[in-house]
Amino acid sequence: MFDLTIGSTARKDPFNDRVYAEYGWQGGTCVQLDKKIKDLRDRAVEERLKPNADQMYIQALVDYKSMLDGLFAQNSCTDKIETLRQKETGILITKTSIDQEKKVLGTSKKEENIYIGLGALTLLVGLIIVLKK
Length: 133
Known about the structure:
Layout: H1 14-23, H2 30-49, H3 55-74, H4 77-132
């Protein structure tokens, strides 16, 4: 766990305590941190839309989100998440290609067997005709 110091009065402010209790970052992966930041952003927007919005709570949400944004940038999470997405996309494309190739090869093999059978039948009929003459 890292220190949630926001200014000199961190953890003494009930709004910071509330935000930390709801969204406290305990460590984890960049993907989890990204989700936590998204949740904070969504909650801040949701709170702003309320008619009796508590500005101090909203500011605590924004401050904590900013701190998590800094942690996100400090750990190069954008690059890590993009690399993960590219790997997952590559795996998905490879699996899809393999499935399509199996489907095409299965169809081609059936067609090949039909043509071989027809060719053998034609050769056999031709051989019978030649031998009868």
